[in-house]
Write a structure and sequence with these properties.
255 residues; mainly alpha; 10 helices; single chain
Length: 255
C-alpha cells in the first residue's frame, strides 16, 4: 500500500528540501573559484604490470565496465515508465563510459585526460537525483529534470576545463549526495530505499579510501586507496542500478 503524505506536511517537507538545496547552491555561488590541485594526479601506486603504467588503477576500471554491461540487461527487464527507463539506460551507458574514460586517464594522469574521466561520471549522480525526485517528490518534476540535470553535470566538466573552476562540478556531484538521503528520509516512495542507501554509503566509503590512497598502500602493500575506491564504486553502482531498475513496484505512476 502506498503512503499518502498530507498536503500541509508535504509542503513543510518541501520547504526543508528546497532550503537545503538553495543553501548548497548559494555556498557554491559565493565561494571563490575552486582550482584543480596538481597533486591530485600524484597517485601512490605507480607500479606497472605487463607494460601498463599505474596498472591497478587502470585495470580496476573493469568493474565499471562489467556493472555497466550488466545494467543494460537489468534496465531491459525492469518495470519502468518511459522516462525512468531512459534515465536508467543513460546511467548504464555512463558507467561503461566512466570505465573507459577512467582507464584512459589513469594511463597518463593529467588535467587533459581527467576531462574524459569526469565527463561521463559527472552525469551519474544528477541522473540518480532526478529519479529520486520522481520517486519521492514528484514524478512530473523528475521527468522534467533528469535530462537538464545530466546536461548540467556534463557542462560542469566543460566549464572546469575552460576556466579551471571546479565549483559547478562539485555542486553537481556533492549536492545530490546531500539531498538524496534527505529525500529518502522526508518522503515516501514506491521503491524500497535499501539498495540506494547501500550504494550511496559504499560510494562514500570509497571516497574515504581515495583520500587515504597512500596510507592504504603502505598498510597492506597490495592495493592503494584509489584502487579500492574504484572497486567499491563499481559495487555501489550495482546497488544503485538495483534501485533504479527494480522488477516490481508498490504502485506504478502513469506514463
Amino acid at each position: 500500500m502506498s503512503v499518502v503524505v498530507a498536503a500541509p506536511d508535504h509542503r513543510r517537507r518541501m520547504a526543508v528540501l528546497l532550503a537545503v538545496a538553495a543553501a548548497g547552491v548559494l555556498v557554491a555561488a559565493l565561494a571563490p573559484p575552486l582550482r584543480q590541485d596538481p597533486s591530485y594526479h600524484a597517485f601512490a601506486d605507480r607500479r606497472a604490470f605487463f607494460g601498463i603504467p599505474y596498472a591497478l588503477n587502470v585495470l580496476s576500471n573493469v568493474g565499471f565496465l562489467a556493472v555497466g554491461v550488466w545494467s543494460f540487461v537489468e534496465v531491459a527487464q525492469a518495470r519502468l515508465v518511459r522516462w525512468e527507463r531512459a534515465a536508467a539506460f543513460l546511467f548504464a551507458l555512463g558507467l561503461v563510459l566512466t570505465g573507459v574514460g577512467s582507464a584512459w586517464y589513469h594511463l597518463a594522469p593529467s588535467n587533459a585526460t581527467l576531462v574524459w574521466d569526469r565527463l561521463p561520471l559527472s552525469a551519474l549522480f544528477p541522473i540518480v537525483f532526478a529519479v529520486v525526485i520522481g520517486d519521492r517528490v514528484s514524478p512530473t518534476a523528475g521527468r522534467a529534470l533528469f535530462l537538464p540535470l545530466a546536461v548540467f553535470g556534463v557542462v560542469s566538466v566543460v566549464w572546469w576545463d575552460l576556466t579551471d573552476d571546479l565549483r559547478p562540478y562539485a555542486l553537481a556531484q556533492f549536492l545530490p549526495l546531500a539531498l538524496i538521503p534527505l529525500m529518502l528520509a522526508l518522503f515516501p516512495g514506491r521503491r524500497p530505499a535499501r539498495p540506494l542507501i547501500v550504494g550511496v554509503a559504499l560510494y562514500a566509503i570509497g571516497k574515504l579510501f581515495e583520500v587515504g590512497d597512500g596510507a592504504v598502500l603502505a598498510a597492506g602493500g597490495v592495493v592503494s586507496g584509489h584502487t579500492v575506491k574504484h572497486l567499491l564504486s563499481a559495487v555501489a553502482a550495482g546497488f544503485i542500478v538495483r534501485w533504479l531498475a527494480p522488477t516490481s513496484f508498490t504502485t506504478m505512476q502513469p506514463e
